[in-house]
Amino acid sequence: MQTMMQRSLLPENSLPGGFRFAAVTAGLKPSGRPDFSVAVADQPASAAAMFTGNNVKAAPIHVGDRHLQRSGGRVRVVAVNAGNANCATGEIGMQACETVCAAAARTFGAEGHEVFPSSTGIIGVPLPAEKLVAALPEVERQLAGTTENFAAFANAILTTDTRPKVAHALVSVGDRTVRIAGVAKGAGMIHPQLVPHATMLVYVFTDAAIEPAELNTLLHDAVEVSFNRISIDGDTSTNDTVLLLASGASGAAVDAKHPAFRAALQDICTSLAKQIVDDGEGVTHVVELQIEGATSDADALKVAKAIAHSPLVKTAWAGSDPNWGRLMAATGYSGAQIEPERIAIWLGEQQICINGGRVPDFDKQRAHEYLKNREYTIRIDLGIGQGKCRFWTTDLTEEYVRINADYST
Amino acid sequence: MQTMMQRSLLPENSLPGGFRFAAVTAGLKPSGRPDFSVAVADQPASAAAMFTGNNVKAAPIHVGDRHLQRSGGRVRVVAVNAGNANCATGEIGMQACETVCAAAARTFGAEGHEVFPSSTGIIGVPLPAEKLVAALPEVERQLAGTTENFAAFANAILTTDTRPKVAHALVSVGDRTVRIAGVAKGAGMIHPQLVPHATMLVYVFTDAAIEPAELNTLLHDAVEVSFNRISIDGDTSTNDTVLLLASGASGAAVDAKHPAFRAALQDICTSLAKQIVDDGEGVTHVVELQIEGATSDADALKVAKAIAHSPLVKTAWAGSDPNWGRLMAATGYSGAQIEPERIAIWLGEQQICINGGRVPDFDKQRAHEYLKNREYTIRIDLGIGQGKCRFWTTDLTEEYVRINADYST
Fold this sequence. Notes:
By secondary structure, chain A is an alpha+beta fold. Chain A is built from eleven helices and 16 strands.
């Protein structure tokens, strides 16, 4: 098994077979940059999807969910627009989404319910479906199973992201090689709430042969330790989607228990999740939280989320400020069971809190220097059990406020 | 009944009888400004208190709670230091707190358990009790029942606040006049979680004669609609405290059902709560949320809190950005029962969302202009029930980040 994080182009020969990609400018992004990404499977691909847990769901979430149910988990076309979320757009939003799906189905010779739509961008503005429909002929002309087109797909789904997010892996299955490649977007409104239906925009393609039910299990298990473990701002989007497609073009069959495939998929999802955090809006520090010694994994996760969502903690990180009392405060209101006098905290290798109080030889300057790193680790041992989790989050900077206060993003 | 919001000095003759006040510089604030506020009741006053719901509690929270239990709800001395929270300071923090209480008891001729301590400031740094003890003789010299000293008390409890927060009321009880006056501090880490024990630093004094049990009821009812309805940054402090003392010096007895007294106390608490929000760190907009049409008041509160804690909503407010989709998104993940297509939203008098979608004649510029006001109202009708709440919160600005990223606040 070989897993690599990619910033843009995949290496030659690493693209999963059975898919073609394209991206064009349909005219939704004010910048005029490409905003319509399409992937077409040569044959109906096995599909597993997870959607946002937000009770306000964008039209494409409803439509995509319905299409997957109708097709029995088969997808021919993935159609993703950036620049408009098609959310809080009422009945006309649903119609706009169906219009795009129907046109894509005609263009690529698929059934309407074999088209999987996604949208990302501003909420509450009607989606100009006609622009997307008008762009489909150009999409068809450009479709190709090349790393260049895959990179174009990865780029056109971006909104406030500063760079594409790509990861891939090769997995040996018997005497064959299976390819997996994934792309993601997301830099704000990032706090996926993963009910069995959740996340941001992530598309993972593989040429392994996998039944939809097995694919679902694989996806849920991978998401639980990756996209379910990140937060930038604690906001859960109305449009989060993770889609995993298996074309079978490699001729190698894989089930949900295949160790190497499971590991590769989890690595890809973790890589994409961390890339999303790393590219968070205004981010200057990426923090890995290691919570341990909780009475349950669920309690450990509560502590991680309270810390990851605390403006006071996140602003202290922005200033490389070793104000660990804010970590204590967030731990205290997390809802997790704690005994304050048993809490210990480390910044990297430096222990700064023992038995709920400051270590006697606290070296504040050393802690300050460590927190100047772009990436670092904070470990909190609650000291009362075996529950633990890893979680990735960011600081909260003036730049984040500037980006999101900009009228109208 | 007469209720007024006061920025500094109370009017003559409005100070509750039976209390004397003083504030001195003990040397905890690096600025050298007064940092030790003391109130002394001539006779043991009836007392009711509510403390933070954070599971990490500062030493004075533990000590104050214990003292109230031991004294049966009687307080002679209130001793508040700013500049050090005495939290996450372990056993030596408890000892430091007890040392200050014991010294104050000796100075003012009280029992140790008649002293009610509070601390606010940085977490995790040992409290230099000796500085507070050394300042007690000067406190004793200065003690006086004057509006000047009351103002000094209100000033010395401040930390990152930019101004003191004071409110008072006069209530006619039979042929007598009862006085109530309160002070508050708090500008960050403001999101009181009000279990029957909660909030930030608030001290309310009255010269009505009220038994501790009645006082408890009055305080809980008032806090529920005031301090329980504000949030600046969603962080719940380790030190939040609301203390209500009744000296009885007016000679007028009041019970928990006295309508005018109840109303005056609630007005004072609401005034202080809104003053805290108005003085929030880096705040440029104060927002009153009116949530209605929820299936329960609890659900309405969930929606208010989700909105009040959403960085994306709060940064949009900073930019006067009528990006109401972010309100929809936060409503969606609030956990409240909703039917998105029944949601309606107003900015002041302007309806911007109907049936979960944008109003047909949405006037974005008008909405933008309205959101330039420092104070405004956002009303959300969920359209599915009778549950409602009012809630006050703020925007999230670059200045908030600057204040809290400043190494080391």
